[in-house]
Design a protein that fits this description.
Layout (H helix, E strand, L loop, with lengths): L14 H5 L2 H17 L6 H37 L7
Length: about 90
Amino acid sequence: MSHTVTGQTPGRPADSDRRRGIFGRIWLFIRQVVGELKKVVAPSRRELVNYVLVVVVFVAFMMVLISLLDLGFGQLAIWLFGNGDQPQ
């Protein structure tokens, strides 16, 4: 197990965080978000086209699969219960 001892109890903010007001904490959060967003790498055009094609093919496959299942279960229900045209 590797962790560093900082002299603070877990779950309690450090002294600098405790002294910050609400606006200081909001500003810190915004700075951290901007810092993380700078690390994001946008995909190239080729990668983006590839991702879009993968999603479109997957959605088309799922549409066909669900349509076939719906048709099959519908036919099964008609076979089991009849189509309802018989008089009672």
